[in-house]
Model the fold of this input.
Amino acid sequence: MAPVDVVVSGVGVAVSGIAGPDDLLRRTPAGADGDDPARRLTGKGLRYKDRATRLALCAGRDALADAGLLGDPGLTVPGETVGVVVSSNYGNVDTICDTVSTIAEETYVGLSPMALPATASNVIASWLAIWFRLRGANLTMCNGSTSGLDAVNWGRLLLLAGRVDRVLVVGVEPANAPVRHLVSGGRSNGEDDLRLFDGAAALVLESASAVRDRGVEALAELGPYARKADQPAAVAAIRRTDPRPVDMWFGAGAGGPDGMTEQTSHDLTTYHGHCSGALGVLQCVAGTAWLSGHDRGAVLATSDGDGSDAAAALLLTVGGGR
Amino acid sequence: MTALVVGMGAVASIGGNTVEFFDSLCAGYSGLAELRGFDRSRYRAQHAYEIDDRPAPGCDETLRASRWLEQAVAAALADAGLDEDLGDTPVLIGTTLRELRSVELSWRDGVPFDVRDLHFGTALRKRFGATDTHTVANACSASLYTLGLGMDLLEIGAADTVVVAGVDTITESTYGLLDRCYPEAPEQVRPFDRDRRGMLQGEGAVAVVLRREADGPGPGHRHARVRGVAMNCDAYHPSAPDAKSIALVTREAHRRAGVEPADVDLLMLHGTGTALNDEAEAQAVREVFSGVAPSPYMTAIKSMTGHTAGASGLHSLVVAVEALRSGVVPPILNLENPIDEVDGFRLVREHAELATLRVAQVDSFGFGGLNAVAIVEKVS
Done:
């Protein structure tokens, strides 16, 4: 099969205090007192959707619009040609926990049938598909700390395998009491220093030729990806495939690329808290924003494998369209 | 591109390995029993198809799904002649509910649970040294979706051997909400019967080792050939299926596999015994197989396994592979008054039938309108 260049053609973000992808490059806390991004979405059909779904719809809409795929109304391309990949570890944990609490207090009779779809962890990807009429292959990755970067790579694999022509990738996590319980092992009461990310990031992937055919800009190009036992192994695997110098590193911890300084690295968790399944997509959106301000260069995104089953790394470079 | 199934492992209420699993189905042995792990006073429904491995009646524990997954993967690797050190070999795990049962026990009862065990990569890293693991939460079509993704990895050359798997346990949240949704509590799963009341959940795990056929001889068996897998999304409703979209994905699977409807000898139906699924699936089958007479043999395993959710697609595939090889098609139990929509379908009922089979189709559909259809072929 001929190699295909896969590029980012649109980005979106839904985080309190963040107006757009460029704001992810600010080295200051996002400021939790900003407007709730989920309120940007209005209209019928939002009842019964959990917070993660609402956040994902906001970021997803921005990414599709940025890619020039949202017409008035509907998509500018056939729905069967668009796939969805969502990354979230905690998206429906609140529904699960609220439901067992209700069963304990009131038996099954106290439940609302409308909560049933959200007991399955694919509910976010399912609503994205329904909301935007995306009928292609639809995946939900719940893959721990590497999940976001894994999701971006699965989006690329769907393109390479010829399953779809473009993919909406969304990373999202909600902050709430059940997530806090789960992440802290039951030890956090909300008044300690555990900071949970509450937001979503989204990007659209297409082949470079599809982007050219549509006459839109390639914002960044995907380079190699690896999921390995730890961060040094993941980074080394990328360097073997593409040894070009890294200009900006989105990551933290031991075993990152050589020669990085405070100025050439961004640890998004410092400003946005524990991002879990959203992290990799958030890094790629931030990396795309950084590349948009440069004529050349390479950005490396990594998930620190410290304490996890694995680490992942993904390289982004300036898109071929400029 | 075609791939060979070179190893298989399966765990369910009706058996702890593929031989027990298939023999139970052919013998009409069901895993249906009264609820074992939950407080029954909280529910109207009282039955499920659970694996009977809890430490004591009414006492539940964490990480049961992870344990069954390890068991199924270990069996599949042994069957494939591979050692247990997986390293960079990709493992794709389809699931609806991950380790969310453990989350319930942690939240409500304070049972210790490490968040890193919520996805299955952690357990697979510890047991098999696996680093390229992917937990795909694609509802009840999840493991057939992972079969399609595994085929893609082989086709684009990203791997030479892939392990695809599925696993699910029953959560109280899903059990309780299903109980709340159905007009009457089901006492058993009755696919395609007029008196079906809905589905009851089942527990289990399954794993399949795939290799590119073009690579030539290698370790393991030549159980069957996977000719193609199609997957799509209805983009229509969060839980109700769409017959048109199911027909589309079926035709796409035939196209990818290079087969015509008349080539299909055996159809493993998704057959959940819910009002909506069985109607939509039958409509789609009627549309795609119109003019094919007699129809393919058709069966569905959930009357004996319960709905094993994320594992169900590959559970059906394992049955298809064993049926192709043995010429024995297990029956659908509890099908006394078939719905009009299956009129003329050659459904295998009550007793196993002998048949000469070459090509089988496996259906798997899930919440969110996630559909996957696979075509497998007998290897001579």
About this structure: The mean pLDDT of chain A is 94. The longest strand of chain A covers residues 6-15.
